[in-house]
Each structure stands twice: as C-alpha cells, then as structure tokens.
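Work Package 4 report. The design task specified in the project plan requires that, given a folded chain encoded as structure tokens, an amino acid be chosen for each position. We show below one input record used in the internal validation round.
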C-alpha cells in the first residue's frame, strides 16, 4: 500500500477516528484507573507538541476525519491549547471533528479557548454528584472545580457528553441522579462498564457492575426507548421519556462491538495500539524521529492496518487475577 491511501484493515474496516493521548499525567487518581502512587513517564519520552501535530496531520492525510485528544488528563499539559489551535486549523480541510475527553477540573480556564479553536463537543468524565463519593472514587476533593468547568463549557456553547463508569458499591445508587442531572443540563449521558486495564490497588471485580443490571434498575423508574442515534462509537443509545434526554450504554464486557470498529489509539509516547483490548502495537515515535518521517509514518500506519485484531480479548478478571492488560487506561486514553 502506498501513502495517502485510506486506512483500511484486513477485516475491511475503514479507520477514520483517532484517539490521541497527549499526556499520561493526571491531577486525579480515579481508583479504577490508576494507583495513588502512579509512576508517570519521564517527559522526554512523551511526544513534543510538534510531533503530536505532525502525527495528527499524518493521520488526517490518510483519511482520519475525527480526532479526540485525551490522556491522562489532556488539560494538564501546558501547551495543550496551542496544540488544539494548531489542529483546529485543519477543520474543514480533511478534519471534520476535533474533540477531547477531560475530567473538567481545569475546564473553567480553557472552555472559551477550546470553543474559539473550533472544538464543538467534549466528553467529560464524572462518576457522581456527591462530593464525598467523588473524593472516594477520584481520591481528590475536586467536584466543585468540575462543576465550574461544566458550567463554563455550557456557557462557551460546547456540547457536553457526560461519561460515568458504573461502579458497584461506589456510585451505583447515584446513577439515576447523575443521568437526570445531565439531561436537565442539556448534556448527553453515557454509562460505561469498568474494564480490566492496568494494576490498581483495589480488585476491580469488587466494583464490576454489568450495565444490564443498571438498565433494569433504570427501567423500573423510566421508559427507555432504543434510539437510532449513532456516533460511530461503541455506545448504544436510548431515549429517556421522563427526562427528555439521551442515554448511551457502553458494554465492552457483556456485548461485543468490534465488528464496526473505526478507531485507533495512540499513546503520549507515540505507541499506536490497534485495539484498546489488545497488545498489538506500532511505534510511531520511532517513525516520527526517523530521517524521512513522513514516509516512515505512512509505512507504520500500513503496518497498523495489518495487525489490527478482529476483536478485543478482554473479560472481567476473576478475583485476585492480574488485569487482562497491564497498561492503564491513562496510557491509551479510553
Ligand atoms: N482524564 C480524562 C477523563 O477522565 O475524562 C481522559 C482520560 S480517562 C483515561 C478516559 C475515560 O476512561 C474516563 O471516562 C474514565 O472514566 C475511563 N476509564 C479509566 N479507566 C477505566 C477502566 N479501567 N475501565 C473503564 N473506564 C475507564
Ligand atoms: Fe485521571 Fe481520567 Fe484516569 Fe481519572 S480516569 S485518573 S481523570 S486519567
């Protein structure tokens, strides 16, 4: 295959969506995501602003139309707004959507800059509206900043989707409240099952809550009608009659959605992971740092298309087992 051809894998799935992690660092320590004493990468291993920019342009040149910046927490990276501005200039010129996933602790400061750079929609992760539960889950008392960030996003005209990881014994009882609140704010709401990625202190199996159960519980109070809405992602959507909002469910463990996968992930060190649930990878940083970077990047992307697996391999670990994959979600950004 030659450069500039679209990215199509061996299962004839066309890759149009890149999730690019811009840092592995974070100001929270969500217990299901990383340990309190997380070891972060030495800064020199992380791609520079210029490298991230080149890499993203390389993907856009191969037909990627949607770019999501993530992390770790993307807004803790100092030159993040600069990167968003640079990438925003590609909107309408190959790139159709530029978006990010954030914990919103610093969103109040950046919402206007993001909107000005061309960001229209963001995903915000929020697992509870209860301050004590927030602190228990994220190990930081930051709910007030997150709520300020969400208000700023709304004021800046950004469309918001709230992502909530369903956690047995932690936020299980808060889920109806957070969904109703999100819908009341005009936000979409999506629930996610916890995935076995990376060592954390607690056993995830203790908090694994299948969404089939959450859905049954929600259906006792609300009318959920399956919706035709699709975002190209793994969520299935329902309209909630009583709140007038839309609810997405992402069920990687109880249901498989790999057939229609259109995405690829790159870590902050430039490792392309062909699947969130697999270890197949290609080193794009080596390509970017080689002499003819553009050609090397194209060749690396062709390789990625050859190794992308047909489906993910994870299942929730049984008690005491090591996680299915050693890397944390903060590396690949979810
Ligand atoms: N820091 C940003 C945030 O929290 O939105 C972006 C990165 S974070 C890794 C992306 C998403 O992954 C968050 O919604 C988080 O809840 C989710 N996540 C992290 N670890 C997870 C796990 N083990 N299983 C399921 N979701 C996870
Ligand atoms: Fe940080 Fe996001 Fe992981 Fe929470 S889920 S620790 S906010 S990277």
């Amino acid at each position: 295959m030659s450069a500039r051809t679209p990215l199509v894998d061996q299962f004839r799935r066309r890759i149009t969506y890149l999730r690019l992690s811009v840092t592995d660092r974070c100001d929270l320590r969500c217990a299901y995501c990383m340990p309190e004493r997380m070891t972060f990468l030495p800064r020199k291993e992380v791609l520079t602003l210029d490298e991230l920019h080149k890499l993203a342009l390389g993907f856009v040149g191969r037909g990627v139309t949607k770019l999501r910046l993530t992390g770790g927490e993307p807004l803790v990276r100092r030159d993040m707004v600069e990167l968003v501005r640079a990438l925003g200039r590609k909107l309408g010129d190959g790139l159709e959507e530029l978006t990010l996933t954030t914990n919103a602790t610093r969103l109040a400061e950046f919402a206007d800059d993001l909107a000005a750079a061309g960001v229209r929609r963001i995903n915000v992760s929020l697992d509870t509206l209860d301050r004590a539960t927030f602190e228990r889950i994220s190990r930081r008392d930051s709910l007030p900043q997150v709520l300020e960030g969400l208000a700023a996003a709304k004021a800046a005209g950004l469309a918001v989707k709230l992502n909530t990881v369903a956690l047995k014994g932690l936020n299980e009882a808060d889920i109806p409240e957070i969904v109703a609140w999100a819908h009341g704010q005009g936000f979409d709401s999506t629930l996610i099952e916890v995935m076995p990625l990376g060592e954390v202190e607690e056993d995830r199996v203790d908090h694994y809550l299948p969404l089939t159960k959450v859905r049954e519980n929600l259906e006792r109070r609300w009318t959920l009608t399956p919706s035709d809405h699709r975002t190209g992602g793994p969520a299935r959507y329902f309209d909630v009659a009583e709140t007038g909002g839309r609810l997405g469910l992402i069920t990687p463990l109880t249901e498989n959605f790999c057939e229609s996968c259109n995405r690829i992930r790159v870590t902050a060190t430039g490792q392309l992971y062909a699947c969130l649930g697999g270890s197949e990878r290609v080193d794009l940083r080596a390509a970017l740092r080689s002499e003819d970077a553009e050609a090397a990047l194209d060749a690396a992307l062709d390789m990625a298309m050859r190794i992308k697996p047909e489906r993910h391999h994870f299942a929730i670990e049984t008690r005491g087992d090591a996680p299915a994959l050693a890397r944390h979600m903060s590396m690949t950004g979810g």
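The chain is about 30% helix and 20% strand. Validation will be extended to a larger panel in the next phase.
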